[in-house]
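Q&A log
Question type: sequence-to-structure
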Amino acid sequence: MKLLTCGVTDLVVSHGVVDAVAPGPAGLGPEPSSGSAGNGTADQISAGLPKGLPEPVSRTESSGGLGEPQQRRLGQGVAVVSLDLPQAPVTCLDFWCRAGSAAETPAESGLAHFLEHMVFKGSERLGAGEFDLRIEALGGSSNAATGFDDVHYHVLVPPSAAAEAIDLLLDLVLAPRLDRQDFDLERQVVLEELAQSEDQPEEVAFQQLLSRACPDHAYGQPILGRREALEGHRAEAMAAFHQRLYKADNCCLAVAGPLGDGAILEHLERSALAGLARSDQPQSTTAAKGQGPGKRKGKGPGKPMARATAPARESDPSVPGAPSEPAPLRLQPGSDTVVLPRLEAARLLMAWQVPPASELEAVIGCDLLTTLLAEGRRSRLVARLREQLRLVESIDLDLNGLEAGSLVLLEAVCESENLPAVEAEIRRVLQELLQAPPPLAELERAQRLVGNGYRFGLEAAGSVAGLLGNNNLWGRHQALQAPLEALTHWDPQRLSRELAPLLDPERAFCLRALPA
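Response status: OK
Response body:
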């Protein structure tokens, strides 16, 4: 769904670096994919998985051979969704929470991503870095990613280590230590990450596009946060943020891999997850169990830790409660021009609003539309602007599935003198699609590419867990086959009638970025 290369183009930030999210290549098919990336349905329907998690792929399962996910509720109602993949070489544990940057108040800018960093600094039982070492000792790997809508923490381990890995993951995520000294040190890491993002003109251009297109919405704000807010954050505010949002009715755990006799699911019934309180229950005075002055594993006494009482939604409507629902997006059409130092080539950036991730059939249709326009050499925009007219170095059109309203983002890279011609030709291609339905063969090609991308994503436990976790977090309980079935519901006439108008150039915000 989300996520292309890095920074704001991804609409997600991964642990430690601005990173890519990328299961399921979209361009599977007989032709090389060029000019676009990230249009696979697995990306559109799930929030993706952090890049760099080594996972062997078992091709013995197909989407048609997968069973139905099993759902259960623990304790105060936290959701657990699981799928038995007997042939998978690893088990994936994926903890999801509706605690992305859209859940922040203006004063909390950047806290969601900052908290993701601090989680890995340990808990009362785990010292800084100990979680990673113990997961690696089990033969596994871990990562995390913060997006606009949610955050997730992802572990891949051998099936025999799943129970121990669950305990480690839940201890880390549900009871972060938030040591004040670590907080101050990690703040510098986050600020450096922000500085690196601000030093990349391509990312600056995309952030300026989003801030202009979504001026009154969280999607227009950087996930990394505003510098002045980050410099002023305190551990107590982070504790309150964690305490407010990491609640039973705001979280979900997905498990995918060999489940055997189900012992791992029974283990969850006795885990810390089962004791997670709901958002409507009284708040404790600490952000995590046992938080306060004390000791952690390792040498020396522990530093003082944050103590805070989270504000309740009833007493302050301006503070988002849990379960959190994003405010509806209303993209502002328009245009602007910016001049950026160190930008190597001119860029035309465009943003459109399309239906939210909850509208599966419409999202699948938009995926088909963006694939038809900019996936591979035969796609309309790539064929016209790069292959035929040679006006652009590259052109990308990506669908980013989001809960408040999805975004289609276009980036065309070209010489400055070609920018007017590039804009005119893009408008011409889009108008052609508005005036006549695509040929059936063109739509069928897009359906193959999208379907193959989704099926590929279902061949790895990590991708399956990400798909299940994100869908269940947001109340989407459709069958795994549902996206593939939705592909068949679109014909050329319906696509042209219902969705092509959404990409009318007059509905877009257009930003022209020029080198200084």
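Response note: Residues 1-10, 16-63, 283-322 have pLDDT under 50 and may be disordered.
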